[in-house]
Amino acid sequence: NAGVMQNPRHLVRRRGQEARLRCSPMKGHSHVYWYRQLPEEGLKFMVYLQKENIIDESGMPKERFSAEFPKEGPSILRIQQVVRGDSAAYFCASSPGKGTGSPLHFGNGTRLTVT
Amino acid sequence: QQQVKQSPQSLIVQKGGISIINCAYENTAFDYFPWYQQFPGKGPALLIAIRPDVSEKKEGRFTISFNKSAKQFSLHIMDSQPGDSATYFCAASRRGGSNYKLTFGKGTLLTVNP
Fold first, then answer.
1. CA angle, corner A33, sides to B99 and B92, nearest 5?
2. Nearest CA in chain A to B32
3. What are the distances in angstroms from CA B9 to CA A44, A91, B42?
4. Tens digit of pLDDT for each residue in B9-50?
5. Residue contacts between A and B (CB atoms, under 8 Å)
6. Alpha carbon distance A26, B48 (integer Å)
7. Which residues of B touch A25 (CB under 8 A)?
8. Is the Cβ pair B101, A48 closer than 8 Å?
C-alpha cells in the first residue's frame, strides 16, 4: 500500500530553466494538494486539485507557476524560468475526500535547488 | 502576517522527560488543529489533531491541550524517547470546507538525548 509518491526527490536547475515536479496520490485518493516549504519555515499551501480540475489555487504565485492533475497520470507542478527564490522543498499531499475526516497524507517531497 | 506562532524553535529533552511545544493562533475562524511530525528527508506525518469543542486529546504518549479563550494549543510528549527526535509542526485550518488549507507554524526541532 504505497503512500504518496513524489519524484524526483532532488532536482537541480539553473536560473531560467523549467522545473517539473510529479506527484502520484495514494491509491483511492482523488484530491491532491501542493505545499512549499522554504528553509526555516513551515509549509505553505499552494494549490488544491481534483482530476482535471483546479479547485483552489489561492496560494500559487501569479506568474511562472502552474499545476495540473490530468485524468490519467500524476499531478504535475510546473515552475517556468526558475529563480533562486524558488529553491525549496515541495510537498504533495492527497486525501480520499474533502473535510477533516480526510486528513492529508504527505509525500517525502522534492527538494528543488536553483543555481 | 504569521497566523500561527510556534515556540520554542528548538528543544532539547532528556530521555524520559516531558517535551512541551506551544502554538498560538490569531484567526478565530480556525477550527481544526493538527500536529505533524517530520523526520529529516521525509514528509510531515499527522500525529494527532483536535477540534475546539474539547480541551484535551490524548493518544498514547502524545497529548494536545487546547485553550480556546487564549487561542493557544500545545503538544505534550510524555516519556520522551530518542526516536521522538524530529521537527514538530502545529497547524490550523478554517471551517467551511477549506480544512485542506493548513496554516503551519515554523516548526520546533526536538532532540531527545539518550
1. 30
2. A100
3. 18, 22, 19
4. 999 999 999 999 999 999 888 988 999 999 998 999 999 999
5. 62
6. 20
7. none
8. yes
Phi-psi region of A73 (alpha: psi -120 to 50; beta: other; left: phi over 0): left
User: How far is Cα B76 from Cα A64, in angstroms, rounded to an integer?
Assistant: 41
Best mutation target, B30, B54, B100, to test chain A (most A CBs within 10 A): B100
Residue with cell 493518544: B59
Of A10, A40, A31, nearest to A92 (Cα)? A31
What residues in B contact A48, CB-CB < 8 Å?
Answer: 100-101
CB atoms within 10 A of CB B91: 24
What are A2-61's pLDDT values in tens digits?
A: 799 999 999 999 999 999 999 999 998 889 999 999 987 889 999 999 988 999 999 999
Residue type, A87: S
Strands of the sheet containing A5-7, edge to edge, are: A5-7, A19-24, A75-79, A65-68
CB contact under 8 A, B43 and A106: yes
